[in-house]
Structure to design on (289 residues):
């Protein structure tokens, strides 16, 4: 498998002194929930309309679960920001990530009914989230927020790139590097650093520790991106192939986000609504000679 041509992966880790500088990042904050929906035909619905009604019911319940979770779990000192957050989720969009095969059944009182379950991403109003990000959004009691940055924005040929990530609470993460040609490598987890769980409040450096590669700039040059997908639950799987000390991403770029969002939500012993917080971030770098 051909490697992205501008990055040289050296199998011996070499750490350089660095100065941390924040770079602009794009972020998508959301929650991922599982919900069930059902509807009955009655005298006024066809089977297709009943199936559509069941999906609508499932989406509504997913949005309600996300809002209930946010109201119960989020503790932000600034009451206005907390109000903004709740408002953002009250106006959320619901995107279905996965759905079960629906099932028809009969009820004595209502006749033929249909039910299904979905895994959905509840996406809050972005304007309210952007407003919140200027305040107390990095509190450990706020929704998941993971920063990703590099030492600087511009790199010259032969320089080595260092990446840093930090979350406001414990999280699982996948870190990808997209080169100027659109090819992607998974930097974390990798064949030598398999753990993708990170503690909140701690700054993590990439590459470091047991990593067996460096990120050295070489042609072709242009704008490239470090992308992080993070969640409070273990992330969904994508197709990977070993490429030295990292993985080559063999999943189509358009499918990576959706597959990653298929998080592995586990049931909780206290029977609370099962919700996973999700955050997608990006840091852009420019390479040249």
């Amino acid at each position: 498998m051909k490697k992205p041509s501008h990055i040289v992966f050296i199998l011996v880790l070499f750490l350089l002194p660095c100065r941390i500088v924040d770079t602009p990042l794009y972020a998508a904050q959301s929650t991922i929930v599982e919900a069930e929906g059902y509807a009955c035909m009655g005298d006024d619905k066809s089977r297709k309309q009943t199936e559509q009604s069941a999906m609508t019911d499932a989406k509504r319940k997913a949005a309600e679960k996300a809002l209930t979770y946010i109201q119960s779990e989020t503790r932000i000192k600034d009451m206005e920001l907390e109000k903004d957050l709740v408002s953002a989720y009250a106006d959320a969009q619901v995107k279905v990530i996965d759905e079960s095969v629906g099932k028809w059944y009969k009820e004595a009182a209502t006749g033929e009914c249909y039910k299904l379950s979905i895994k959905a991403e509840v996406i809050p109003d972005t304007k309210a989230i952007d407003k919140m990000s200027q305040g107390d959004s990095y509190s450990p009691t706020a929704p998941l927020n993971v920063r990703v940055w590099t030492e600087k924005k511009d790199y010259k040929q032969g320089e080595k790139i260092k990446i840093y990530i930090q979350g406001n609470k414990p999280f699982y993460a996948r870190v990808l590097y997209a080169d100027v040609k659109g090819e992607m490598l998974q930097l974390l987890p990798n064949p030598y650093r398999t753990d993708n769980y990170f503690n909140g409040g701690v700054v993590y450096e990439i590459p470091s520790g047991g990593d067996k590669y460096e990120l050295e700039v070489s042609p072709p040059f242009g704008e490239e991106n470090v992308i992080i997908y993070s969640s409070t639950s273990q992330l969904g799987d994508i197709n990977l192939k070993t490429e030295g000390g990292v993985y080559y991403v063999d999943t189509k770029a358009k499918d990576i986000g959706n597959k990653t969002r298929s998080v592995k939500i586990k049931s909780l012993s206290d029977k609370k609504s099962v919700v996973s917080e999700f955050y997608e971030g990006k840091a852009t770098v420019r390479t040249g000679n």
Helices lie at 47-73, 79-90, 126-132, 253-260. Residues 236 and 262 are 5 Å apart (CA to CA).
